[in-house]
Amino acid sequence: MENDSIIADYKNFLQNGKTERECVIQIKKSAEENGYRDIEQFSSLKAGDKVYISKFGKAIALFSIGSEPIEKGINILGAHIDSPRLDVKQNPLYEKEFLVYLNTHYYGGIKKYQWVTLPLALHGVVCKKDGTVVNVKIGEDEADPVFVISDILPHLAQRQLKENAADFIPGENLDLILGSETPSSKLKKSAEEESESKKEKNKAKKQILAILKEKYGIEEADFGSAELEVVPAGKPRDLGLDRSLILGYGQDDRACAYTSLRALLETSAGKRTQCVLCVDKEEIGSVGATGMESHFFENAVAEIVARLAPYSELTVRRALNNSYMLSSDVNAAFDPMNSDLFDRENASFLNGGIVFNKYTGSRGKYNASDASPEFIAKLRAVLDSNDVMYQMAELGKVDQGGGGTIAYLAAKYGMYVLDAGVSVLSMHAPWEITAGKDIAEAVKAYKAFLTIE
Prior knowledge:
There is one protein chain. By secondary structure, the protein is of the alpha/beta class. It has 10 helices and 22 strands. The protein has a 9-stranded mixed beta sheet with strand order 1-2-3-13-4-14-20-16-18, sandwiched between helices. A hairpin with a 5-residue loop joins strand 11 (237-239) and strand 12. Helix 2 runs parallel beside helix 5 (251-265), helix 5 (251-265) packs across helix 10 and helix 6 packs across helix 7.
């Protein structure tokens, strides 16, 4: 069945895209297999051309050029490809009482206690002074070692268990065990042996550095120019005896990035130019050169305009202003075990189809992008005519908190924007839950949206 193919491909995308860089590599590969080319290969563009523009290997925009002048607007699906995780610090390696640790700094909104005692993997790049880039992926192959953050045994945890959940695992304790050494210094030794023991200080750390040098050609100083991410080790799995659910890391927001990409690759531009935008840093405020706060997308549209006709800043502004966008981001699924946190009549459910949020933000709609009802009505008509299952929802009860997406950053250009994505249970946990049916419905919904004229 088609849905089975989508789910299998989706799980493969999750497994091979545990970092932003890995996602962009997969997106480029799929795009090129479907006729997309780097914009640098084009001096001019015409209707039917398919191009992509990437930034630092961590953000990418794909365009399928339509027949109408681009100033009439673009149909945009915008997702983010970063997920909560642990990042390795610049000076991370240290030895403490015969164990070697890797020092980390958590990224995005996590519950720190969820990351202890899990098998963890190390993904990323190490950039060396000679210009070479070493790709690192340790912990995914069955033959690989994995890493872990240790925790206190219950017998000694009386003080820990009295702390608040936010505090009982300090951020500075989220350090990975990398290796170990025999505690010979604890044994009785002669004076001569004691002297020799002092010479062997940090012996375990030196052994780890030797392994890094032998296998990857990495020196300790190279961590200073590395981008290494700690993520859960292991593959996405079918969840439940009926296999209706998917358990996997990073489904916020790669569930929407994958379905947006697939929708684009399975449609052809008509009058309006189509675009899928995948950006970085959403989980920490969309900042930086690869986040939606940057000028990356605006510059990408300018590059398209420059190759379609004599460049005009006004054409860029009109193209952005007249665009339609779905901010393709996930929503919190209704949790029956914590139902008091949700307004049931305005919640999204697993297996309920794609979710539309008229507004996100928190409490009094703070930091919300409040979508136009005219635009929502237009979408409803298109989705109903394509037999797409969808639901309208908010993220929890009004006073419980809230969340945000990149929608408000796109809305500043004056375009129509609406949040639209997949329901996720256990959002931001190392292992998140989605429904296979919702993944398939998201593809249908995004394909219908891309064809709006």
